[in-house]
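Batch manifest, entry 17 of 40.
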Amino acid sequence: MNFEFATANRIIFGPGKIEQLPSLTLTLDARVLFVTGSGKDRAQAHMERLRSAGSTVEQFAIPGEPSIEAIQSGVQTAKRISAGLVIGFGGGSPIDAAKAIAALTTNPGDPLDYLEVIGGGQPLTKRPLPSIAVPTTAGTGAEVTKNAVLASPEHRVKVSLRHPLMLPDVALVDPTLTRSTPPRVTASTGLDALTQLIEPLTCCRATPLTDGFCREGIGRASRSLERAFRNGEDIEAREDMALASLLGGLSLANSGLGAVHGFAGPIGGMYSAPHGAVCAALLPHVMRANVAALSAREPGNPVLGRYREIANTLTQSSSAEIDDGINWVEELCSTLDIASLSDLGIQEDEFPIIVEKATRSSSMKANPITLTARELTSILAKAF
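Output type: structure tokens
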């Protein structure tokens, strides 16, 4: 058995921990590039607290999912202000953007030199600027991952800039920051978190260490996602989901994902559909396709036992069968009013392009079994 494990230098979790941000900032560097998302006004009070504590703060907003062009602009801003620290505040997009800006500010060349799939895939040679990740949604786990997912409109795909040095210096996870997340976003990001617990537990790179994180996270997400959706002020549910998201990030960064995320990258690059919504639409159909393929071609594969274990956890029944777990996910998607791929604007006539791109994605390579083009197309059709 061989595996590695790496994560953020420091993880701070709990309600009210955002109060530590000024002191944490000053221990790293007082010249701050503060990267925010579309809800940039939410960050104003926190930036003012940093300024009052003695930091110089420049805001850089990422209104949507980060593109290569946006990251280049962020790098120029970081260099202009001689930033010594990058803070990512928001969902997965601003946190990924912050990690990418921190890395490319110190490493020379074009972003394409370092990007997977469409670029050179070169490793970073210099340590990125220090970074702090502060999530305000519970879904991506980006605060503890070593990659940044960037969109390339030219190639119509989303790909990763990836290196262990990109792990944030501090992951500051305060569940109270997620209370204002709208129900629709709570639903899609929460199902992304659940996906990022199910896929690492069933992928071909699962490790004993990440297995424990996944098992804990699946239990928390299954009992609290609907509660957080129905009542955003339910702090116990918000805490469960924030921890589930964190555990998913720890797991995917150190094992792998699967076909859901194998599809999500190409779809996210081709359309403006939110990542979490795409994952939510695909999850039950990928689970069913994987189980069918494993049962037909590798009936002795132990991953089938893991799908049964997941079913037991989701349904809170030790006698649950695999189908019961998949049905539970489908019913949750219905309860949370998850959009179909067609509702998200995906075009059926582009299924062949999506499948072709998905087969080349890094996430697809960790799927527990290699799915055929026909099986992949069937997943899209059922999620449509």
